Fold this protein.
Amino acid sequence: MEPLRENVTSHTQFILDGFSELGGLRPVLFIPFSFMFIVSLSANSLLLYVVISQRSLHSPMYILIAGMACVDLSLPLFFAPNMLLSFLFDWRGISLSGCLVQIFFVHLLGTFQSTLLLWMALDRYFAICTPLYYHECMAIPRFIKFVIPLVIRNVFMITLVVSLAGRLSFCSRNVINHCFCEHMALVELACGSTAINNLVGLLTVFLIPVADFIIITTSYIVIFSSVLSSGKSGSKALHTCVTHIVVMAVSLTIVLTAFLSYRIRNGLPAAVRVFFSIMYLFFPSCFNPVIYGIRTTEIRQHIVKTLAFCRLVQTAPHS
């Protein structure tokens, strides 16, 4: 694909050139990333099936876990197939419109990973700190008041980010050093000032994941203080809190590493930045259903029963 002459027109076609440093070894990446893709799809599908099929799991906490599984199931679908085909067949081209659509869905679904953790923290707060009013607070009409503002915030901020990126002119290079369209990777190719894009990008980070994690941390501090000061045995309730905290800590570490690697010129090789950017999307999708399936007793029991039933059905014709 020949780059267009500088200052003549804006590029509408781009080349995704992530891990080009590997040369002939690049197709090998298909193996580990396809394995992660399969784990993500199968684990989240199983978790969703178990929560939907078991009426005993139709409580707010498990519905929120199912919501997380739905996000984790959907997110890889918007970048992993294209990335895997690129590794295997060297298909690297993507249009500007396709790139913007990918950015919108990848970043929008990514925002709901932290927002769902926030809703889970609120669920635990009501369950532990105000148990007598839990069902009243978590009733759909009441809880929807916590849901709608955050959904509007996420959609508005990501729409703004993508709209501003779509107005840029790309008159120099058309090679994106990434395996999928990431906001900053695209903005870096623009000619002219990108100060507003950088500002809105930073604002989005602080208004969504950072704000979510501050509220989550505050909620868990209040929860643990309440349990310790009351002297009550809250081991079961705190067990579910620890599960959410583990997921939150892992997600925050990976997101911040990817974010800082792109915005701080620290001499990191391009392949390392690309790797962290992929992992902050891919790893939670594989990690979350496993940690929820293992650490949440009720879900774990139903998963074991479901897998045992599937094995029984498979062996039945041969017995």
